[in-house]
Amino acid sequence: MSNSTHPIIFGSPRLYIQGVGVLSRLPEAVGSLGTTPFVVVDAVVHERLATQLHLLGIREADIEIFNGECTAAEIDRLASRQHGDVIVGLGGGKAIDAAKGVAMARRLPIIVVPTAASNDAPTSRVVVVYDDQHRLSEGRFLPFNPDVLLVDTGIVAKAPPRLFAAGIGDAISKKFEVELSVKGHGVNMFGGRPSHTAMALADACYRQLREHGQAATEAVRKGCVTDEVERVVEANILLSGLAFESGGLAIAHSLTRGFAALPETVGTLHGEVVAFGLLTQLILEGRPDAEVQDLIGFYRSVSLPSTFRGVGLTDPDSVTLRGIATHSLTAQYIQRSSNVFSAASIVDAMIRADTMGRAPGFDQTVPVH
Ligand SMILES: [Zn+2]
Q1: Separation of 272 CA from ligand 1 center, angstroms?
Q2: Least crowded by CB within 10 Å, which of 30, 113, 161, 167?
Q3: 95 C-alpha vs ligand 1 centroid, how far in Å?
Q4: pTM for the complete prediction?
């Protein structure tokens, strides 16, 4: 399949602001888009930031606590509040996605304020909707990317280090996924051809993480914001988000589907599965063992998993692995790519990744919670 008839499509937020204390710019951002905010926030984040929000002039009446899962019913409930004319998504990936769902339903602008650098969702227009059993049920798409992103590094650096590591896992795969997507004439999340801009961003993302990932991880463990932390936060959120959405995804991300369908992996983070998925992808692509081992060494330095156990599976049997592979192949971006991998070859690659991950000198532990 050739996608030469597809136009290049590239999307991004209108404004991205990152730094210590930038939450204070929220009122100004709301004022630039409307008059009254409707803030969708995680319960724990609300507890942590309520005083700060009130000091910024955000009233309790402008705030609605997100119930924890981004379901169609939850989006409907939040949208039915009919409060405000600027939606604000404040918290983790699911709260942000629920807020995006509300903005989409009410056709209003949206400001995204992530409180962890744990995944690639904040910059994108994608809304991942789950069912009541926490299984992926559908993807919705805002017509455009979020209007404004406020990434307060002072807040993000104090999130649990495991979330920061997961963000690195989610971001480091982009270089390889965009490359495979381009090679297979895949289409990006806008249904267009991946641009050279997206490829350059994915490459820059990888380089920042490899150069500064370990130092940033150590700083975050101490709750410090250093230059390395700023670089990795930018890679985890901005570079990673732009790269996947305008570049396309491949095997590493498709595996998150298969894993998410298993009850054992409920406690595993998106970026942790993507990290393991990337090892699987590199093996499937036939890359040299040294390249895979080099990446496993990096994972170890930033506390990312490289074994089945690390992603919540203890000695999975062949039926379970086959189920993961089959489910993963249903991802639309895989089906629209000309890179053809069978379920059996994915199973073999996962087993090989786990074996390499368990080899002496490499990560054998579950990440620190
Ligand atoms: Zn992702």
Answers
A1: 10
A2: 161
A3: 15
A4: 0.94
